[in-house]
Amino acid sequence: METKKTILDISDLSISFVQYDRGLQQIDLPVITNLNVKVGEGEIVAVVGSSGSGKSLLAHAILGLLPENANVVGRMEFAGELLTPARILQVRGKEIALVPQSVNYLDPLMKVGPQVRNGSKKPEKIRRQKSLFQKYDLSRETEELFPFELSGGMARRVLLSAAQMHKSRLLIADEPTPGLHLAMAKRAMRDFRAFADEGNGVLLITHDIELALEVADRITVFYAGTTVEEALVTDFSSEKLLRHPYTKALWNALPQNGFRGIEGLQPYVKDMPKGCPFGPRCSNRTDACEGEIPLRQVRGGAVRCILTEEKKEA
Amino acid sequence: MNRTVVFILKSIAKAVSLMIGVSILAFTLVTVSPLDPVRMNVGNTAYNSMSPEKKAELASYWGVDTPPVERYLHWAKEFLHGNMGISLKYNRAVSEIIRQKFLNSMVLMLLAWLLSGVLGFCMGVLAGARRGGLIDKLVQGYSIVLASMPTFWIALVFLMLFAVKLQWFPFGMSVPIGMDPADVTIFDSLRHLILPTITLSVVGVANIALHTREKMIDIMESDYVLYARARGDSEWEIIRRHALRNILIPAITLQFASISEIFGGSVLVEQVFSYPGLGQAAVTAGLGGDVALLLGISVITAVFVFGGNLIANILYGVIDPRIRRGQNGGK
Ligand SMILES: Nc1ncnc2c1ncn2[C@@H]1O[C@H](COP(=O)(O)OP(=O)(O)OP(=O)(O)O)[C@@H](O)[C@H]1O
Ligand SMILES: [Mg+2]
Fold this sequence. Notes:
The structure holds two protein chains of two kinds. Chain A is α/β, with parallel strands linked by helices. Chain A is built from eight helices and twelve strands. In chain A, a hairpin with a 5-residue loop joins β1 (about 5-20) and β2. Chain A starts with 5 loop residues before the first strand and ends in an 11-residue tail after the last strand. At the A-B interface, loops of A face α10 and α11 of B.
């Protein structure tokens, strides 16, 4: 099934922030380490992970939006080409579209119609914007409103419209559904599906696993700034098909599987444990877990755990 | 529309009540000061040789025997009718002196205000748009050096350098010394105006540039600029479409708030350049214990400062959609 071309290929991405600790001590705060994500043509890949696991940073890194004190290492490829800073400037807003995480990303002093059109007054842009607004049940008057005059759901739909103004190849949607009614969220997901089916890719960032399971083809699980598992959606039909103990914990926490949560919290970047970041919360932990943990290809997916067995678990 | 009207009326009411407060404060400060307004107004020698009727008349103008509240009301009423008393130092009606000095100062202050506002705004925007760039370093260096130098000192240096040493400009006064007022041309007046104006602006620019730069940096780091970048806008498009729009409101506040600084600066600059304006008159009045003139100048200055804030507020109501259309209207 991996014969399709890859649109986005992120490998071993690490991001750290240069910060001044107490006094003039300069420290390098690693927030993302060895992150891997891949999106193929026609695919919706969901990135799930709890708050602070580095999902938005990934999106910002792809689009070159990180602040100046960020250090980025690793390899990012888009449509077979290396995503260099110069290349990013060419593709962002054109071949790569973003639905930002918060409705505060709208300029508070610009009416939303012109804002969605990037200030353009070209008839074809106006037509496109109007038809998108209509599709998302935004009334005609909406384009004359300022962001503060919109409800959360309306602003969300404005952001969804803005991401579809161009013909792009990759859509990065960072939590696109909060505040939307179920019907509207479903419509957005259908639109993502249709967009992917045209041979494009969608990177759907969310911490709503149920939503991810409904629309995505593959799921990438982040934990404390790294990829712990890449799984097919179908792997989530049974706990046994999953590869990483954290993914299994997520699975167990789903309502249909008994809502069973696990103890503990995701570690904060400043006191990361040695070796596996999930170690302190893992019931199968061994001494070897404190060593280097590579990302391994296992059963058609990938896992960053030394204990996962190659064969189907008993 | 209604919203704007209500907002403007509220702003006016606020400005008027502030004005009343300031006039009470100024009046109280002047009357509780150890200066006897009657004596100060006519001078000790004159007072001692004055007829009792004249003394009584003056005492009643200054209301020496009436309770403070009544005295204030009396004074305020007279003031509003244009009777601000007689200046001790100039021996003329205070209103007349203020009018004359004010005209001189007005040109100086208005020019300096516009010059420093426009230049400071442009410098701040350019510096903040590219934080850490060459322009930013130059603007920051200039502003920090100038903001840390006392105004009167800069005025002295300019006077010595450009007027005394290089002799590009006359050194002080508003007209050539000893010239018949009838012969003074507009060019003479302008020549005398240039150096004080530049001095006043050079200082004002620093402050406005630094504040504008701060705002600009905040804007360039804001989420909406980040989103605009994500959507492929170039830096220039971002400045034009988002930054200028958002910096306009703080810039207007800053510009109108700087009126008080221009007034303050003009006191020092006029003193150094012997420029016969309101600032100089204020110094003369203060040092000479000219109560009537001092009070008059304080109140008129306050009118301008509050007037400036009022205009800024009203402009907000017109420009900022969050005020114009209400924070939770629409939908
Ligand atoms: N500019 C920065 N400087 C230092 N640390 C940062 C910076 N930006 C983000 N971080 C840290 O990086 C980590 C990942 O942040 P990120 O915003 O990517 O999380 P997220 O997975 O999107 O979370 P959420 O679900 O809440 O949106 C967090 O711990 C955050 O504190
Ligand atoms: Mg996020």
